[in-house]
Amino acid sequence: MKLDIAAFGLGAVAVMVGGLALWASSMAVDWAWVSRAAPIALVVVGIAMLVLSRIRTH
Fold it and tell me: Which stretches of the chain score pLDDT less than 70?
């Protein structure tokens, strides 16, 4: 099975944005915390995409 890396990245970002929207609709959001956490989450998604896209030899 070949993983679709672009779908993984887009899906991960969509989950993060959706989670933030749900959080914002249910209570007050500490935007200072979000401004620090969002870049970290995007870096983690990028690293995961790089790791999953490397060529595997068996």
Answer: 1-3, 55-58
Structural tokens at position 50: 């790089």
Joined tokens for residue 54: 């490397």
The radius of gyration of the chain from alpha carbons, rounded to an integer in Å, stands at 15
Tokens standing for residue 32? 């200072």
User: Cα separation of 54 and 2, whole Å?
Assistant: 12
The whole-angstrom separation of Cα 7 and Cα 29 is: 28
CA dihedral 12, 16, 17, 19 (to 10 degrees): 130
Q: What is the pTM of this model?
A: 0.73
Residue 7 tokens read as 């779908």
Q: What is the pLDDT of residue 22?
A: 92
